[in-house]
Every structure is written in C-alpha cells, then in structure tokens.
Amino acid sequence: MTTPTLAKIALLLLASPLALAQNADRKLQSAALNGNQLEITTSDGKYLIKPYSQRIVETTFIPQGEAYDPTSHAVVLAPGKDSATLKDNGGKLEYAVAGGISVTLTKAPFRIAYAYKGKPLVMEKRGYAKKEGAEVIDFELDADEALYGAGARAVGMNRRGNRFTLYNKAHYGYDDRSELLNFTLPVAMSSKMYALHFDNAAIGHLDFDSKKDNTLAYETISGRKTYQVIAGDSWEDVVGSYTSLTGRQPLPPRWAFGNFASRFGYHSEQEARAVVKKFADEKIPLDAIVFDLYWFGKDIKGTMGNLAFDKDNFPTPKKMVADFSAQGVKTVLITEPFVLTSSSKWQDAVDSKALATDPTGAPARYDFYFGNTGLIDIYKKEGKDWFWNIYKGLRNDYGVAGWWGDLGEPEVHPSTVQHGTGTADQVHNTYGHDWARLIAEGYQKDFPNERPFILMRAGYSGSQRFGLIPWSGDVNRSWGGLKAQPEIAVQMGMQGLGYMHSDLGGFANAYLDDELYTRWLQYGVFQPVFRPHAQQEVPSEPVFREEATKALAREAIRLRYSMLPYNYTLGFDNSQQGLPLMRPMLYEEPQNEGARNLVSSYLWGHEFVVAPITEPGARRKEVYLPGTSPAWFDFNSGRRYPGGITAVVPVALDHIPVFVRAGAFIPMVAPVQSTREYSTRKLELHYYHDAAVLSGSGKLYDDDGATPDAYAKGKYEIVRFASAASAQQLVITLESEVGKQYQRHERSVALTVHNVAAKPAGVTLEGKRAKFGWDAKRQLLTVQVPATTRAASTVAVSLR
C-alpha cells in the first residue's frame, strides 16, 4: 500500500457533522414498483431495491448527479421473479417478497430496515453519507449480536469491535493475530443469521463496531453504493444463498485432494526428480509437486517474468513433467503478475502492450523486493491475451497440470498505476479475482475437458466460482501461526471460499520443531488441501524429517488418502450447495451463545468434530461436543461421549482428537500412493450405531475425478446410505444412482458397524443369512458385502 493510498483510506476515519445533518435532512419524495423493483426518490438521490430470491434483496443508492453503475464483480445470480408487493401504511412503506425478506421504509425521518419472515434483521443507521474523499453506509446493530466476515483475518471468531482495512495485503510471518491479510472481502455476517455483502471493489474499510456504539459501517473511496442482504433459517441457508448469489466453487480435480510436495523451492530438475523418488521409496502418498520461482530463474531477484524453464537447471522439462505424470504426480508451476525490466520477457510485454501504465501512458515501472518491475494489466485485452498465451503454451508444450498465482494482491501496487478499467485503488482488491477468472475462462475455451487447479494468494467475493483455491499466506512456523489457521479457514468457508488452507508446518523462518510440524500435518488431514510448504532452510516435505516424525507424517497422509471418499463428497456438496468443508460450531448450534466465538474445534463436513492441538506438550484437550447429536465417538478409540458436553479428552502424539457423530456413515478406502490409483470398487463403509439414533443417512459421490461439471453432464454415481434402528434390529441400505452417461462399476463393501455392545443374533444380506465378525473388546460388527453391480443392497442385523 503506497503513501497516497494510505492517505485516501485515512480520510475514512474523519467524522463529518455535515454528513450527519445531510442524512437527517433526507426526505422521501416518491416510491413506486417497477415490476419487482422498488424505485424510491429522495431529496438527495434515488434508491433501487430488488429481490434475487426470498432470501436475498439488493439495495442501491444513486446520489444526485451520479449515474447508475450496473457492473458487479461478485454477483452472477439473475434477479428473481418472486412476486414483490408494496403497501403504504401511513408513516411507513412495506416492501416484501412473499415468505421471505421484507423491507420497511420509514418516511420521516427516512430510514430503511430489513426483516426475514417477520424477524427483524438489521436497519440503516444514518444510511448513506458522503464525506470529502469517502463514502459511508452504516447500520444499527443489536447490542449482543456477534459479527463474522471481512475476509481472512486472525482476530478471534467473533470479529465485532474491530475496524478492518479493505486492501488485500500480505503479512509475512504472522503468528496468532493478523488484522490484514491477502483476502479482504466486503462481507459482514451476523449471529442473527444474516449477511451484508457490499458490492463494490474499491478499497476502503469495514467497521465492525470499533467505537462500541452499535454501528456497522462500510467505508469506501469510490464506486457503487450497492449492498445485498442475505438471510435464512440456518447457516446452511445463509451461506447457500450467498454462494448462489456470487457463484459456487466447481469441484476441483481429484488429485487436488491428495498430498503435495512443495517448498521455496526446487532449484533443478535433478533435485525435483530426487524428491519425487524419495516419496515413492518411503511409501508416502504423493499427487503433485509444486515449483516455486527457481523453475524460471537461478536467483530470487532479477528473473521474475521470465516464465520459461531455465534450460541450465531444467534441461529436459517436458520429459520431467511426463515422467512425473506417469507416476501419478502432477506438476504445478508458480506464476506472478510482475514482469521485471531485467526479465527475458520485458520487451515482449512492452511491445504487446500487456502492462499497466503510468499517468503518461507509458508502462508503469517501480521497484520492489524482486527488482524493477511492471505489472501485467489483466483489465485490457492485450494483457489478458499475453498472459493466457503463456499458460496455454506451458500446458500444451509441457503438460503442466496446475497453476500457483503468487503475489496477486498485487503485492506492490502504487496508486498512480492505471489499468484498462480504472486506477490501481479501484481494481486492487479484484486483481487476484480477475486473474483467476482469466485462467478459468482460458480453460473453458482451450481445455474444456479439464478441471483447472488455480492456487491463489488473493481474491474477492465470488472468486470461488472460478475454482480459486486460496491459502492463508506466509504464516510463521510457530504454535501461534498454527492456532490462527482454523479461524481463518472456517470464516473464509462461511464467505464462500471453502478451500482456504494453510502452508502445513508453517512457511516463514527457519524453525525446526518436530512436534509443531506433526500437529500441523495432523490438522491438515481435516482441512481442504494437504500442502506442506515452507522456506527451504528447514524441509517442508515429510520425507526429509527424522524417522519418528516421518512415521507420524506418513500415518497422517495415509489417513488423508483413506478418507478420500468422504472428502471428495464434501467437495461435491460444496460445489452444489455452497456448504463449507470446514464449518464453525455456530453452524451446528446457532442459538448457543457459547459457540459464537468457539474455534478451538470445528466441524469437518457434517459428521466430524475436529480439535487441533495448538500448544506444545499438550496431554489433554477440552472439546465441546454439540448437543445436536445424542452421542459422539472418538474416531481413534471408539469411546462414546454424550452430546452437549465439554469433554476433557486425553491427547496422544499419533493423532489429534477427532469425533464422529452418532448415526454417521463414513465411506473410506485403503490408502493408495496417488489418486491415479484411487477407486471406490473396494469400499470401506463405517456406520456409527447408537441406540438413541433411530435413523441415519449419508452418501458417497464418485466420478472420473477430471471431467468439468461431471454431475451436470450425467457422468457420476451417488451411493446413498441409510439406517433404520429399533431395539431388536438395525437395517442398513445402500442405493446407487448413476447419471445417464455413467456406467455403474462392480463394487464390494466392507461394512463396519461401531458400538455394537453384544454379539448380534444374526445378520442377513438381501434377506439371506450372512457371515459376520464381531469384536467384543472394540464392539465392532463387520459384514462383507460381495462385489456386485446391483443398484441396492440391504444388510439387516438382529440385535440382542
């Protein structure tokens, strides 16, 4: 952030009595429905209010003298056709969508308030105000509501009381607190189960009641005065509606759910080949290798922008990539949007008019850590085409499978820089977003049969629809750095970016702590992407750690691969419903005030509670187990705990505390060396029986792991699991649904039923007596369902 930018944002701190008086003088002049849109004229401008659905309504204010700007970087949903009504009740106007959100407009003094199904949500306080260099929209908060959102931060789960800068910026080496990181989203969410999305890209602030006067305020230097109110009966409703508004994340390629080899960085082809070989020799699963900036240059400085393999250190890159692919290992390359004046592509970028400019129209040049640079202008056709042709060439010529977009805030972005659609400050927060768009749209055009892998350090609201996979930046290798990660991930999942994850083990500083490394990887099993990455002084790859640590890492990674059926199904649900993979406890118990700030444990999908170990030498851990389930089972020991308690559980070095919901189905497989070998033809299905649960359900989603939008194309299978229990019998059914373009495969199922206290009197499969095993000590029942292509199977257990 440059000094002029800081000065602009500082203006937003100024209080303006004139602005308050101006708001008090706002008078309603007229109001009328135009189709479903409510059009209001006031003494100082015009309001447009329209519904997108029963749960989403949008409000835009157009000050006098300004024109309506319809362009949204975030919204993709078309306005809804739900019938809206307008009633004049004397001193108030009531605008409502049947069965959903309603808007009450008080005529004098003019004020706007929102409700959902009759329940008040939020109201404008002073509404819109214009100050010198700043524009503000503020809202009245209840005294006790908790606030979430504003992008990636580490400040505590309830973020009320903070004033957040909206300017994507890296924070190198942060620990347990960071108020400003790479994803600053203009989204506020409330414990009252509503969200406010401020639909404007320009820089500014989001104030979550920092002055303790019950005010939420959006502050910006310029742009649209548009926001959407999103409400629902549950957090699933709220986040589902928000992601329907801004777009859903496509299901990533299946290999993205595997293990990555990554560091800063691999200096040569020889070194990279040795790393991949070592993973195979150590029998530690691996699906991808990530190349940091040494693939295009020998030195950190002076080479950024080359974006071509260094021929000295990578003499046969095409063969290297092909050899890795033959082993089931994909190649991912780092790219940056900066082209140094010393790079081999500088002149070509200048001649192609691919760079952002200075006020004179010349390519903008400035210094930063890596050298004197220009910045690719992805907001004009020349820049987009130039950049995409580089990606296209690397994909076609070498078979590169994935892309890492680094420094995309952009890391240094002077306010004087001009882009094709506006100034640096106007497009700064959407640069990473539109960079991901460039790659996603390029794939749709040139590689329509491939799912792109797009790892990005910065983005904006709605970036998930381009397949952007975010990570939490250059976190310190410290216990504090680890402690910050669940909060960052669950908050970003609530804001639509469900694949937020961290550099496992931590990135910054040469700190060797085997216990910290182990705990971070064990946490990584239950986060969206498993990618250890760090500065090279202390290896990030488990194959280079001492034997005991390596063994623990191997165990964690093999568990990650065993859980692929469950995890991949979470990805499917995210793509269809916007459900985060990691979910905060308030998702489960929204009315529980104790859950509002709880982030020491979280939900992995619907069925798991996960409690990361974030302190050294821990021997016990307090874990809240939600009362929405009558019981929870220790994933490792099988011990039963009642729901609705805070359990004090023992901590072991070989795993972190993880619990499974009573009545849950967990589909698993034997671990494989890479997802290339993955198959659900030999499924291991775990059911967690409890006498208090009379019915349970679950599912497995499967496809080829590579076809874009396989579900919509009918190239999929969904296997649904169900249980029905009584005191005498437990019946488990499996039913397969296949798409029109998918052939059901023969599948065997090794069924394990947990918490069976007494040996069953008998088991039948398809109505015929079947063999079964029973482990009295562990209270496990096992039944083998032979391989079949039948669409349905039924196992009935006679309980004693």
Q: Which of globular, elongated, flat, extended, rod-shaped describes the shape? A: globular
CATH C-level of the largest domain: Alpha Beta
What is the CATH superfamily label of the largest domain? Answer: Glycosidases
Number-wise, the strands total 47
Query: Could you please say which CATH topology of the largest domain applies here?
Result: TIM Barrel
Low-confidence stretches: 1-22
Q: What is the average per-residue confidence, as pLDDT, rounded to a whole number?
A: 96
Number of helices: 14
Strand content: 25-35%
Q: Identify the strand order in the major beta sheet.
A: 5-6-7-8-9-10-16-15-12
Question: Any idea what the radius of gyration is?
Answer: 27 Å
- The second-level CATH architecture of the largest domain is Alpha-Beta Barrel
Based on secondary structure, the structural category is alpha+beta
Please estimate the helix content. Answer: 10-25%
Largest β-sheet summary: 9 strands, antiparallel
Domains counted in the coordinates: how many? Answer: 4
Compact summary:
Belongs to the glycosyl hydrolase 31 family. The chain is α+β, with helices and mostly antiparallel strands and 800 residues long.
Task: Give an account of the 3D structure.
With 800 residues, this protein is of the alpha+beta class. The protein has four domains: 3-246, Sandwich (Immunoglobulin-like); 258-335 and 380-577, Alpha-Beta Barrel (TIM Barrel); 593-661, Sandwich (Immunoglobulin-like), CATH 2.60.40.1180; 679-798, Golgi alpha-mannosidase II (Immunoglobulin-like). The protein is built from 14 helices and 47 strands. Strands 5-6-7-8-9-10-16-15-12 form a nine-stranded antiparallel sheet, covered by helices on one side. Strands 1-2-3-4-17-14-13-11 form an eight-stranded antiparallel sheet, covered by helices on one side. A six-stranded parallel sheet has the order 18-19-20-24-27-28. Strand 25 and strand 26 (422-423) form a beta hairpin. The model is unreliable at 1-22 (pLDDT under 50).
